[in-house]
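Reviewer 2 asked us to include a model.

Predict the structure of this chain.
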Amino acid sequence: MKRPIRGSILLLLAVQAAWWATPGVLHAATDPSLASSARAAIGDQIREQAGIPGAEVFVGDVRLSEPAGLRGPFAVVRVAADGAVRSGRGIPVSVFVRDAGGETREVRGSVDVSVRAPVVVSARAVPAGAIVSRQDVTVRMREYTPGSDGVLHAVEEALGKRARWQLTGGVPLRKEYVEDPAALRRGDAVTIVAESGPVRITGKGISMQAAGVGDTVLVKNLASGKETAGRLLDGRVVRID
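Predicted model (structure tokens):
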């Protein structure tokens, strides 16, 4: 039983040695300064591209091809990672390096990256229509993907907003889950105001559609049963022009 195991180990070592000896690939062992500089530059570029305060970027293996004619030591001028901010293995990158002779060349390759970002989640059940307080939300680090752009990343984005529907505990909050408390929903009670010179008439009504402050909204006068359009003001007042 020992010979097959020993043979497998020797074969693995031979394959690994051949891989490291393959020309045209920059490994950390071949040029650690270039790999380290590229790793730091890639992390900074992806972090800036994400544009999320508190985002964490972990850069793993950097695999770069080595164009002929470059002479070390190398200096990284800039990097260009794959257009989408994401975590994954083998993300394409282009690293522009300057060699000892002052020549700048593009070095292409791939990199393993893990991107985590702060995500606002509900700390407990929040009833529909409730105003979100600090006790209702918390922040957790989650894997970042391009499809999570609508997720809230700071609690300040949720505090003081109104839950549009019931939220269960542990749910990542998206922008459409909350709204300005001054916003109007269909069926909300409103005060209808009509002014003409010194004459001011007020009445009760209900909104026939959702609207934000400053928007034109259709309302129904409860006294006359007629529908009319007006502009929504603060305090759920609709002014008829």
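The CA atoms of residues 98 and 104 lie 4 Å apart. Helices lie at 2-21, 32-50. We have added this to the supplementary material.
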